[in-house]
Design goal:
The complex is a heterodimer.
Chain A: E1 4-7, E2 10-13, E3 19-25, E4 31-37, E5 43-50, E6 53-57, E7 64-70, E8 73-78, E9 87-94, E10 104-105, E11 109-113
Parallel strand pairs in A: 2-11
Antiparallel strand pairs in A: 1-3, 3-8, 4-5, 4-9, 5-6, 7-8, 9-10, 9-11
Chain B: E1 3-6, E2 11-14, E3 19-21, E4 23-26, E5 32-38, E6 44-50, E7 56-59, E8 62-65, E9 75-77, E10 86-93, E11 101-102, E12 106-111
The chains are: A mainly beta, B mainly beta.
Chain lengths: 114, 112
């Protein structure tokens, strides 16, 4: 009965490769997010989608492309991976796109770029 | 832009000690304020929140009061347990926006 799930949990890859991280929520929420947590635990929003439409797009390189096939899924594709992309990536969801709704986070995907 | 500043960690306490983790913010208007907790190997969970000045959020023995005059939202607990060991994040969101701005997190370790 996992609320927000991510796959894979760990991802180790070489520089220059392309990889995807998948996220699914079974809460019936309309809004989903991607966050990046760096090695110093600093957490920053990357994207948010509401009903499959992009509503927040922070200053993130074009190599990162979110894709939402339906409102229960928000996948993150990363092209031409760089060393600096190594981080933990968290997916989250909320009922609506509002601070009055709690965001539920997935367990994270630890990406290591060698 | 909006920002959140938390006290530097790590913080190490003995069980039953009193906990304070300081959080101050810079924002225009009247943001909502949050504390999230991240237990080892897990995602973040909402611990408590306050949406207007003088509101007190509380949960699991933790409390924080929204102080507009000092732009602060300090987290307190009267008696910590080993199970409270985690990283605590203070965050804000403007005017109902879903965009959370996080502080850098404070790691708490509670020893038996």
């Amino acid at each position: 009965d996992t609320a927000v799930s991510q796959t894979p949990k760990y991802l180790v890859t070489q520089m220059g490769n392309d990889k995807s991280i998948k996220c699914e929520q079974n809460l019936g929420h309309d809004t989903m997010y991607w966050y990046k947590q760096d090695s110093k635990k600093f957490l920053k929003i990357m994207f948010s989608y509401n009903n499959k439409e992009l509503i927040i797009n922070e200053t993130v390189p074009n190599r990162f492309s979110p894709k939402s096939p339906d409102k229960a899924h928000l996948n993150l594709h990363i092209n031409s991976l760089e060393l600096g992309d190594s981080a933990v990536y968290f997916c989250a969801s909320s009922l609506e796109a509002s601070s009055y709704n709690e965001q539920f986070f997935g367990p994270g995907t630890r990406l290591t770029v060698l | 832009g909006d920002s959140v500043t938390q006290m530097e960690g790590p913080v190490t306490l003995s069980e039953e000690a009193f906990l304070t983790i300081n959080c101050t913010y810079t924002a225009t208007g009247y943001p909502s304020l949050f504390w999230y907790v991240q237990y080892p190997g897990e995602g973040l969970q909402l611990l408590l929140k306050a949406t207007k000045a003088d509101d007190k959020g509380s949960n699991k023995g933790f409390e924080a009061t929204y102080r507009k005059e000092t732009t602060s939202f300090h987290l307190e607990k009267g008696s910590v347990q080993v199970s409270d060991s985690a990283v605590y994040f203070c965050a804000l969101a403007q005017g109902g926006s879903e965009k959370l701005v996080f502080g850098k997190g404070t790691k708490l370790t509670v020893n038996p």
